[in-house]
Amino acid sequence: STNDSKSTSKKKVVAVVGGGLVGNLNACYFAKRGFQVEVFESREDIRQAKIVKGRSINLVLSHRGRQALKHVGMEDTIISKGIPMHSRMIHALNGTQSPIPYGKKGQYILSIDRANLNKELLSAAETYPNINLNFAHKLLNWSTETGAMTFEKTEDIQADLIVGCDGAFSAIRKQFLRQSRFNYSQTYIPHGYLEITMPPINGEFAMKPDYLHIWPRNTFMMIALPNLDKTFNCTLFMPFEEFEKVTTGDKVIEFFQKYFPDAIPLIGAEALKRDFFRLPAQAMVSVKCSSYHFGDKCVLMGDAAHAMVPFYGQGMNAGFEDCLVLNEIMDQLNEDFSAVLPEYTRVRVPDGQAIADLAMYNYVEMREHVNSKWFLFRKYVDNFLHIIMPRTIIPLYTMVTFTRTRYHKVVKHWHWQDKVINQGLLFCAAVSVAGGSYLLVRYPPSMPNIPIEQLWSRLQALKSPF
Ligand code: FAD
Questions:
Q1: CATH architecture of the domain formed by 13-80+110-186+286-367
Q2: Single pTM value for the model
Q3: Position in ligand 1 atom list of the atom nearest CA 316
Q4: Closest ligand 1 atom to the C-alpha of 302?
């Protein structure tokens, strides 16, 4: 095998609970360090599953996730199956499309097939002789006293460390909730999401593939990401209340006519009516908690620690980065769990909370601001300043997506530069008003002689809508 095997000297057992995206990557990290790794996944092996879900749900992979994959030698395999997206493509109601670049020239995010990514991660984990994949192992509970894990079917199992990667509704986290001074909050947003496939047209992508397409419509929006099979995966985000109003196929068409008319011929009216009711709209939850660890026995990572709304495309990226951060701390503190876990909480909690907050902020930005002239103007100003002062002014999206700047530092820097730029723009405005006034005084135009009261009433009249 190509993996570092320091395993002979160390026999500590690490149990990774949850063999999803973060769990499998994490397993590779621990195995690379030589631990004996047991992965417990409640589902069957998705690679053997007979019923493959009809459509592929895709994800945005960016710098943080890529760096984490790179550490275990998986970056190239994964990006070779991704589709680069350099810009958003904003679809206006009248059908016009306008691109807004994600970053500088050459910077892009990748559209990745979630199921394939999960399969690749499972196969990568399997190449390590010191990883055991235990499918159909649903964890029910674990004991904070003994560390023993209870599963639905098998007998209790012990490990030296339990890593909870079991997602937003983590069963591992349940025990944390009973501890004193454990903070926890969970928020459902009023929106749900629904997925619709846009098929190829004459064997080609129905829209330009190297974009993340967005139809912002204030209280709701639709996005579309390209797949390798030349389909697009459209996701409609809308308040549940609105979903409930669309009860029949005809109403779906009526709704799309009103808000996404350009998408109807691309998806096809019949397919649209069918896909819309294939599954009920799904809920989205944001979870924040602290601490991320319990003693030297257990640590929460990925969505189990910080599930977020999907509007920054960072959930998985943050979860992958978790693996990298823990790994860095393991290096610093010599793999001593009693020191590593508290340090991990100290370092990672502010970042997990910051990205959950930013994702919630982007929930508003994507729906509303991309339609506003001021927002677009500020985006151009930010990008321009970034070009002339690349180290000082960095657009928020760039810091989140194309760097590994700690998320909480990103938020701080963003607030700072927002203040500076707004003050700068105010200053420029003041200078031009002052300059203009000076010119007016210095070179007064010939004005009709109007008394001041009359001038005032004329100005008032200008405000009237007619
Ligand atoms: P999960 O992927 O949820 O995996 C948890 C695993 O644990 C599962 O395999 C589950 O079967 C298993 N499990 C659960 N309970 C138990 C148990 N009791 N015992 C044993 N096993 C158990 N992120 C991005 O970075 N980019 C995106 O573009 C993006 N888009 C998204 C779009 C949508 C609509 C949604 C909902 C999320 C999106 N995300 C995105 C977020 C991303 O999906 C998650 O952050 C990511 O899946 C988290 O991985 P995880 O391994 O922590 O959890």
A1: 3-Layer(bba) Sandwich (3.50)
A2: 0.90
A3: 25
A4: 52
